[in-house]
């Protein structure tokens, strides 16, 4: 299969840098376009029951500050990643808010992505069973091939 659109899920971790390297190499060899996607954390606002980026907040002001910080953090991480992409590869980046698995899979579907490349954090045993893994959930839910980079 010839890939024309590759999505690299990127969070700045060591595993995501490995995924970026693999996605970059595949894009370089196939001529595919590359998209780097950063998904912000969700934050629960207990008083109102809403979900917002960041963690847990106690006020709307805290949520707004957390959203600004998370957006800035995402931009910083993606800028570092873009610096490692072959300049001959057509590359775009996006920062989205939401559940990582749902957001990655939804983006891939809506943008006709041919391949998702994602890092593996390397959890094993009970921790892997208890916490689950974004990469495992993406493999289970994606409609596209998924390359999990170790």
TrEMBL record:
SUPFAM superfamilies: Adenine nucleotide alpha hydrolases-like
InterPro entries per record: Rossmann-like_a/b/a_fold, Universal_stress_UspA, UspA
Superkingdom of the source species: Bacteria
Entry's localization field: Cytoplasm
Domain UspA positions: 3-149
Keyword Cytoplasm listed: yes
Keyword list, A-Z: Cytoplasm
GO CC entries: cytoplasm
Entry's family note: Belongs to the universal stress protein A family.
Database matches in PANTHER family: STRESS RESPONSE PROTEIN NHAX, UNIVERSAL STRESS PROTEIN UP12
Designated name of the protein: Universal stress protein
Organism (species): Fictibacillus phosphorivorans
């Amino acid at each position: 299969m010839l890939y024309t659109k590759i999505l690299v899920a990127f969070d700045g971790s060591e595993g995501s840098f490995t995924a970026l390297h693999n996605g970059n190499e595949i894009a370089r060899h196939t001529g595919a376009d590359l998209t780097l996607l950063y998904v912000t954390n969700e934050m629960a606002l207990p008083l109102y029951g809403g979900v917002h980026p960041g963690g847990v907040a106690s006020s709307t002001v805290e949520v707004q500050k957390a959203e600004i910080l998370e957006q800035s953090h995402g931009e910083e991480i993606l800028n570092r990643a873009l610096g490692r992409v072959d300049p001959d590869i057509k590359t775009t980046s996006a920062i989205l808010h939401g559940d990582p698995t749902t957001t990655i899979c939804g983006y891939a579907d809506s943008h006709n992505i041919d391949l998702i490349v994602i890092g593996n954090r390397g959890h094993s045993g009970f921790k892997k069973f208890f916490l689950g893994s974004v990469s495992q959930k993406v493999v289970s839910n994606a409609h596209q091939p998924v390359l999990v980079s170790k």
